[in-house]
Every structure is written in structure tokens, then in C-alpha cells.
Automatic annotation (TrEMBL):
InterPro entries from the UniProt entry: Formyl_transf_N (IPR002376), Formyl_transf_N_sf (IPR036477), GART (IPR004607), GART_AS (IPR001555)
Organism whose genome encodes this protein: Aerococcus sanguinicola
Reactions that this protein is recorded to catalyse: N(1)-(5-phospho-beta-D-ribosyl)glycinamide + (6R)-10-formyltetrahydrofolate = N(2)-formyl-N(1)-(5-phospho-beta-D-ribosyl)glycinamide + (6S)-5,6,7,8-tetrahydrofolate + H(+)
Protein's name according to its UniProt entry: Phosphoribosylglycinamide formyltransferase
Sites where the protein binds N(1)-(5-phospho-beta-D-ribosyl)glycinamide: G11, S12, N13
Entry keywords, A to Z: Purine biosynthesis, Transferase
Free-text function comment from the UniProt entry: Catalyzes the transfer of a formyl group from 10-formyltetrahydrofolate to 5-phospho-ribosyl-glycinamide (GAR), producing 5-phospho-ribosyl-N-formylglycinamide (FGAR) and tetrahydrofolate.
Family label: Belongs to the GART family.
Pfam families: Formyl_trans_N (PF00551)
Active-site residues, record numbering mapped to chain: H108 (proton donor)
Length: 190
């Protein structure tokens, strides 16, 4: 299964995926990393891991539509079967969503539908909930709103700092995201 990862920033999930599937023996390959941000650390990680990168931004195109069509074109040229969003900070629109029905996934650091948006970890922490976690879901035209594929939860520890919670959430993400891709690959074989 040929996968593309889209990331706008740090890229720790991208790295976890690239390392999980580095040998390709599970029939899963991270073919390239795309970033809409020229300075994204994810691009450096890809270079260090020997994974192909593409980088361009909506500002490089006359319209958002043209930007997404260019993204779609590289996915099609690379025969991508699954698009994996990992900290990609943009909403997707028709060109990609129509071309990849049920084949674009995202990871979010809360138990959706609770705490969608950019600050899911902090908002859960500040709300004082006992449990939070991570969600992997199919991507639709909304923000963190598509059909849920898998969730994993963890208990917020008494006295835990936000930084500690963030670290534990990211560790959980790095386990759950490869597991979900294996699950989707298994479904393809079924
Ligand atoms: C992750 O917490 C992910 O759930 C959210 O954005 C963050 C990206 O982190 N969508 P990284 O760039 O993979 O380190």
C-alpha cells in the first residue's frame, strides 16, 4: 500500500510511520512527505530518513483549487493509495477528497468529538477531564469531523504537567497511527 504523508510542522508522527514501515516487508511504503511549509522540521526528518519530499504552498498558485490539483497530481503520479495527514494544518477540499474517498486519514490528539481543533491536548487538560487520548479518523471537508477509525485513551495523572501529558499523547500517537495503517492494509487484503 503506497502512502503519502502530509505534514506542516514538527513531523514526529511522520517519522514514527517512516520508521515503522522502513523495510517495506509489510507491503506498506511511505513513498513521500509533502509539506506546505518551507521551514517544516518534517522535511529535515524526511531527508535524514532518505524519503522523497515535495514542498509547495497555496501562495505558489493562483487559487486554492490549483494548489490542491497540484497535490492531487503528485499523489496520482506516485500511485498513492492512502493519504496520511500528520499535523497538516489545512482543511482539504474537493479535488483530493473526491479522488480519495475513504482513503485520507488524520490523527488528532483528543478523544473526538471532544476537543477538535488546534489545541486538543491543552483544552482537555484545562477542562480537567479524567481521560483523554488520540483519534484516527477519515478526513472529510470539516475540521476533525470524519468517521472515526480508532481511538486510544489514557488517564490524566493527578498533578501531571501539560508538558508531560503532551509527551504521553505523542508517544501514544506514534503507536496508534502505524497500527491503524496496518489495519487498513489488512482490510485491503480481506
Ligand atoms: C499531532 O499531535 C497530531 O495529532 C496533530 O498534530 C500533531 C502533529 O505532531 N494533528 P507532529 O508534527 O507529528 O510531531
Amino acid at each position: 500500500m503506497r502512502c503519502a504523508v502530509f505534514a506542516s510542522g514538527n513531523g514526529s508522527n511522520f517519522q514514527a510511520l517512516a520508521q515503522a514501515f522502513s523495510k517495506g516487508q509489510e507491503g506498506i511504503e511511505i513513498v513521500f512527505l509533502f509539506s506546505d511549509q518551507a521551514g517544516a522540521y518534517a522535511l529535515e526528518r524526511a531527508q535524514d530518513l532518505g524519503i522523497k519530499t515535495y514542498q509547495f504552498s497555496p501562495q505558489d498558485f493562483p487559487s486554492r483549487q490549483a494548489y490542491e490539483e497540484a497535490l492531487l497530481q503528485i499523489c496520482q503520479e506516485e500511485a498513492i493509495e492512502l493519504v496520511v495527514l500528520a499535523g497538516y494544518m489545512r482543511v482539504l477540499h474537493a479535488p483530493l477528497l473526491q479522488a480519495y474517498p475513504q482513503a485520507i486519514i488524520n490523527i488528532h490528539p483528543s478523544l473526538l468529538p471532544a476537543f477538535p481543533g488546534r489545541h486538543g491536548i491543552r483544552e482537555a487538560y484545562e477542562a480537567g477531564v479524567e481521560q483523554t487520548g488520540v483519534t484516527v479518523h477519515y478526513v472529510d471537508a470539516g475540521i476533525d469531523s470524519g468517521e472515526i477509525i480508532r481511538q486510544a485513551s489514557l488517564a490524566i495523572r493527578p498533578g501531571e504537567t501539560l508538558a508531560d501529558l503532551e509527551a504521553r499523547i505523542h508517544d501514544l500517537e506514534h503507536q496508534v497511527y502505524p497500527a491503524v495503517i496496518r489495519q487498513l492494509k489488512g482490510r485491503e487484503n480481506a
